[in-house]
């Protein structure tokens, strides 16, 4: 990692966030440097949906080159369900899979519009990626797969459902 200009940070540390944004802006401004690869979901799920994007990647400016990736599970499943399999079992399954096959789509570059904030820009990019991969758009964070859902979120969804019925 030290040879390829990674930008490492601790997401929970607020000072690190500001430092990372500064480093990314400097990197973008230097046209001699290679583009930065960012995974704004911060996690992978079961290949059916695109989770909420972290807004930091969309606050720094610059052009976003979206890439949609969808795995074909026929030969091997690339996703680790940590509630179902241990890390050792997952690695064994990966190493003994016939192949890992995925479709990759390089989508047209996107730029934040003048009246758009980072969250709306992230959602617009996410929608384009999901549409290309034939996946649904989810409004929540990927961390939910490891945490319990907040009661307030459940209540909000229940109220929305009651208004429909």
UniProtKB/TrEMBL annotation:
Topological relation to the membrane, as annotated: Multi-pass membrane protein
InterPro entries hit by this protein: LPCAT1-like, Plipid/glycerol_acylTrfase
UniProt-annotated location(s): Endoplasmic reticulum membrane
Record GO terms (molecular function): glycerol-3-phosphate O-acyltransferase activity
Entry's Gene Ontology cellular component terms: endoplasmic reticulum membrane
Chief subcellular location: endoplasmic reticulum
Protein's name according to its UniProt entry: GPAT3 acyltransferase
Lineage of source species: Eukaryota, Metazoa, Chordata, Craniata, Vertebrata
């Amino acid at each position: 990692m030290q040879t390829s200009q990674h930008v490492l940070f601790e997401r929970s540390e607020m000072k690190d966030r500001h430092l990372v944004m500064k480093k990314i802006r400097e990197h973008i401004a230097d046209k001699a440097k290679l583009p930065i690869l960012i995974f704004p979901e911060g996690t992978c799920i079961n290949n059916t949906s695109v989770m909420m994007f972290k807004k930091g990647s969309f606050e720094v400016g610059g052009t976003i080159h979206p890439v949609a990736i969808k795995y074909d599970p026929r030969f091997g499943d690339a996703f680790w369900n940590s509630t179902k399999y241990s890390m050792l079992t997952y690695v064994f399954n990966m190493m003994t899979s016939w192949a890992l096959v995925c479709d990759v789509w390089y989508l047209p570059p996107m730029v934040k519009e003048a009246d758009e904030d980072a969250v709306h820009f992230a959602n617009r990019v996410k929608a384009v990626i999901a549409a290309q991969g034939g996946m649904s758009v989810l409004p929540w964070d990927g961390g939910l797969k490891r945490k319990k859902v907040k009661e307030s979120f459940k209540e909000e969804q229940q109220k929305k459902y009651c208004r429909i019925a």
